[in-house]
Amino acid sequence: MLIKNKVSIIPLDTTHVDSIHKHLNNEKLVETYPVTLPYSKEDAYMYIENEIIKRKTGIRYAFAIQFNNQFAGVCALYNVDKNKQEAGLYYWVVVDFWNKGVASMAVNKIINYAHSTLQLKKIITGVLKRNFASIRVLQKNGFITIGIAYNPSSYHYKFAKEEVLEMVLEPL
Fold first, then answer.
1. Structural domain boundaries of the chain?
2. Does the domain made of 4-121 have the CATH classification 3.40.630.30?
3. pLDDT attached to residue 85
4. pLDDT at 146 over 80
């Protein structure tokens, strides 16, 4: 299935509250994404408001992933450091869109944004060692593993005592 032209990323805003609230209350998704259930509509609103504030400061850039103009998840650059020309990356995709190439294309689009708009040269991320699908998404986009960390609590309290692959993409 050719999805390249069907996936887009748009700046996250408060029109996405209902979608985020709905989809982050999926038990399957939160097995690998650090939210606690139940995830309230107020949680979603506060999350988006925080992302909007941080976008204005230039340290975070969160986007809604869309597939055929339907909400399909979130991807973001965080800890953006324009002096070092690097940032972190996180993303999650609505369960209905898993294994359809949506995550791979969204990551590709945010990499292009990081390079062309922000002039970044390096993106770092961490992924649970057991999250094979996400590892594959990152590898398809050129990320390589640079280490494995035992997570005492630094990669979100929810995943303490798990192994996390530290991955990097450079140069963009």
1. 4-121
2. yes
3. 97
4. yes
